[in-house]
Amino acid sequence: MEKPSVSLWVKMEPFIVGALQIPPPSKFSMHYLRKMSTYVRMRSGRGYYPYLTWSMWRHIACGKLQLEKELAWLYFELFDSLVEQTSEERLEWAEVISGCVTEEETEKQRNRLSVDTLQFLLFLYIQQLNKVSLRTSLLGDEWPNPKSKSHSGLKESANQIKNWNDNYHHDFVENHLQDLLELLLDPDQLSASSHSMNSSLLSPKAVQALSFLIEGSVDQNRTVYPLHELALWQPLHAKSGFSKLSKAFSCAKFESWLRTCLTGNPFGATACLTSGRKLAWAQQVEGTTKRAKIACNTHIVSSVHRVIVMSQVYKQTLAKSSVTLEDTHMRIHRCCESFIYLLSPLRSVTIEKCRNSTFVLGPVQTVVHLHSCDNVKLVAVCHRLSLSSTNGCTLHVLTPTRPLILLGNQAITFAPFHTHYPMLEDHMGRTGLATVPNNWDNPMIVCKENCDREVFRLLPSSEFYPFVVPFEMEGDTTEIPGGLPPAYQKALSQREQRIRIWQKTVKEAELTKNQRKTFQMLVENKFYEWLVHTGSRQQLDSLVLPAAGSKQAAG
Q: What is the DSSP letter of 27?
């Protein structure tokens, strides 16, 4: 009988969604995580192990690792957002938190939460993904580009985002595999120097925790299995090192098996670009050599692995609402002077190196991250928003978590979510996103020592205008979910009142036919000048499509 051919690979989602794009706290090093691993096991069943409660993590993070409470909660909640939950469970949690009036009530509800301890340890370890390496910096890989907008003294790359590089994920896990396994070993399986031994045994629960990072297949990627299911499969026991007698894995054999079978992610961004299906969503703009590139793997994979990469959309309006978009991890790269509407529920969105563009997104279940963008307007409902190396961006968001201001940002403007489209509330329900709580106006500066405290502002109500999605779609949403904050609604009402007064004044002026004609021409000329000055003319022109343009979003 032919032996099964096993392929294992590193999952993308923990890195895309779970790894913050900043150097980790210094005490997330292996030395301290190993101490934490021993500490929680010694307190098994008391809120530390096998499940770690928020109150116990707060004790460790603030008391042992010297983190601020808000940062401790950020990591805890970030990991919790990776845990599979139904939309109903997410909406129920939103309702509970929005009902809390005091900080004490909020803490009481947070104390109900717990996470898998071993998986959480792995999650803390992979924050090293964005650790600045002095050795690598000296070799040139992480030396700041002269055009970098990072004004901190850190030698971080402002031009490369590791969270989407699946080759880097593979190398990271492969190079740190021994550390990862040692974090999962019981203390009595470690040497006096806290390292694994040839005789060390790894429990099935530890291998199950490693499924947080690794999965695989035995049928050429047609069916994907968690790592622990493959490792415990009878035909693979000899290779994976599982013993029925000890009901555990030989750590040395298991590590060797992993290294032998570990390969590139067949569903990652790299595979999507090289062998994914090309999407003809964008047009080629005359007079430019830039050609839009859009690729997806949604035709061959389950919802967990869906990826779309969009690059170099230039000077046009692109609008889509389709099954192809739903539940995808979306990377939007190097788009310029464009208006992009993606009106479907999405899993995550990364907008990187884009300029002078507007992005209107359907609800994003996990995170929207902007990196190295200039003069970008974002309109989105999302679970989390984070920013790094951006300049002059305006963010109209509805989000239950505090927007994260990471490194290298300038002139950020936060504003309330100000639009709707017919399917919006339905899409919000599917992604588990509610209208409350809404923390759009309460951003968190994560790297305070390397960030100007005046890096952001809240949009003055006098500058606020609602946004209209200019496409016909089916659906029931007819107004902005949750409405507008009172100050912005008041400013809008006052502006509408001034328009009514102006219209009344014109009507009562009793102009002659020639005067009305002259007046109309004057108003139209002024309006045209405004369209050109604000760049709105380009958007209007790009909405005129060859056929059925008004229904493009439904295509």
A: G
At which residue do the structure tokens 């809390």 appear?
100
CA distances from 534 to 5, 223, 525, 531 (A): 59, 51, 14, 5
User: How many contiguous H segments (helices) and E segments (strands) does the chain have?
Assistant: 19, 23
User: Minimal CA–CA distance to 398: which of 428, 356, 423?
Assistant: 428
Q: What are the C-alpha distances in Å from 213 to residues 22, 162, 242, 407?
A: 20, 16, 20, 26
Among candidate residues 339, 278, 357, 358, the one with its CA nearest the CA of residue 310: 278
Looking at this protein, which amino acid is placed at residue 13? E
Q: What would the DSSP string read from start to end of 221-268?
A: TSS-EEHHHHHTSGGGHHHHTEETTTTEEEHHHHHHHHHHHB---TTS
In whole angstroms, what is the distance from residue 374 CA to residue 393 CA?
6
pLDDT, tens only, 46-82: 889 999 999 999 999 999 999 999 999 999 999 999 9
Q: What residues are paired with 385 via a beta bridge?
A: 368
Whether the CB-CB separation of 542 and 316 falls below 8 Å is answered with yes
Name the band, by pLDDT with cuts 50, 70 and 90, for residue 101. very high
Angle ∠(67,85,343) on CA atoms, nearest 5: 100
Q: Which helix (H) or strand (E) covers residue 172, if one does? A: helix 166-175
With tokens 């499924």, the residue in question is: 211
How far is C-alpha 172 from the chain's CA centre?
20
CA quadruple 226, 232, 235, 238: dihedral positive or negative?
positive
**Predicted confidence (pLDDT) per residue in 156-208, tens digit:** 344 457 899 999 999 999 999 999 999 999 999 988 888 889 999 999 999 99
CB 122 within 8 A of CB 183: yes
Global confidence as pTM: 0.91
- Tokens read off for 351: 């907008």
Q: What crossing angle do the helices spanning 117-125 and 30-42 adopt, rounded to 10°?
A: 170
Rounded Cα–Cα distance for residues 61 and 54 (Å) = 10
309 in Cβ contact with 269 (< 8 Å): yes
Q: Which residue has the tokens 């004490």?
A: 104
DSSP calls for 281-312: -SPPPTT-----EEEE-TTTS-GGG-EEEEE-
Q: Tally the residues of the chain.
A: 555
Round to whole Å and give the CA distance between 480 and 157. Answer: 38
Task: Confirm if 116 and 209 have CB atoms less than 8 A apart.
Answer: yes
Q: CB of 402 within 8 A of CB of 422?
A: no
Q: Which structure tokens are listed for 328?
A: 């995808």
> Does the structure show a pLDDT above 90 at 434?
yes
Cα R_g (the chain), whole angstroms: 26
Please check whether residue 410 is in contact with residue 476, taking contact to mean a CB–CB distance below 8 angstroms: no
Within 10 angstroms of residue 232's Cβ, the number of other Cβ atoms is 16
Q: Exposed (0-12), middle (13-18) or buried (19+): which is 283, by Cβ within 10 Å?
A: middle
CA angle centred on 543, ends 541 and 546, rounded to 5°: 100
Closest CA to 330 of 358, 283, 366, 286: 366
What are the φ and ψ backbone dihedral angles of 7, each rounded to 5 degrees?
A: -120, 130
Query: How far, in Å, CA of 306 to CA of 346, rounded?
Result: 10
Asked if 481 contacts 398 with a C-beta cutoff of 8 angstroms, the reply is yes
